Amino acid sequence: MSNSELSADRHHHKVVVIGGGTGLSVLLRGLKEKPFDITAIVTVADDGGSSGRLREEMSMPPPGDIRNVIVALADTEPLLARLFQYRFSQGIGLAGHSLGNLFIAAMKEITGDFVTAIKEISRVLAVRGQVLPAANQAIILKAEMTDGTIVSGESQIPRTGKKIKRVFLEPKDVQPLDEAIRALQEAELILLGPGSLFTSILPNLLVPGISKAIKESAAKKMYICNVMTQPGETDFYTVTDHVQAIYNHVGADLFQTILVNNAWIADDVRDQYMEQGAAPVKYDRDRLEKFGFDIIEDHFIVYETYLRHDARKIGDAIQKLLNDK
Length: 325
Fold this sequence. Notes:
The chain has 14 helices and 12 strands. It is α/β, with parallel strands linked by helices. It folds into 2 domains: 3-39 and 139-323, CofD-like domains (Rossmann fold, 3-Layer(aba) Sandwich), CATH 3.40.50.10680; 44-131, no CATH class. The chain is globular.
């Protein structure tokens, strides 16, 4: 390894990751092992399950995606991480809640502020990096379907059996966090995804000021496309369809690089997903190349119980991108 490469490796690159859901958490578990100074900007549009109940009953942003990201970036005992993720199965009013969600809700009550609560919990759990909500208030995600109907609520949108035309936020004038804008301005790399296109990634990008800050940032910018379609959300979508949906909502020039999985997915795995209404996202390279992106393609998946992005391999690709001048 050359002296310049050693110097690059010692430097903790400032990386901002934007998204939500399981895909983001899996990626962050791999990235935290790299010499990256990570800021995760996480959606606050969730309205289902424990998060939805706390959101409604305590007038706070939903904590679920935030909780998952905190655990993913935590440098703590595995048992404590399991405790934070523990979900009660019984108890009147308690069943269905995760302990971590209740912990965040309690800290919000103690500190008087959701963002401060996240910072304090991150300190307690020795989080490697910074976790920020896209906004310091709950956001209602709405969708206009192609037949003109309007559906309200992140958890309801995929259940309609209709095709999404566009998604939008209420309130429209929700303010981004100053820390999130500053992190985007100072970043060396901004990553979008992986995660649910309409319900995890776009809710962040639609917060006024977030997309503008991304476009104006001098950082390198990459979109990590999902491997599988999501029922009721991206049925039959190709890689290019994902990109086009982002462009339709927030315009072009949001990223220059796209990371795509080109590994064949085994028939038995396809069958498993087909039972849930999901299928592999088709890599339509000819259409994608017309956008002029730098395309990073490789076998970026691992299979255990479910297909997941190979966070270690993606981390290596990201590190190479950052070290390339």
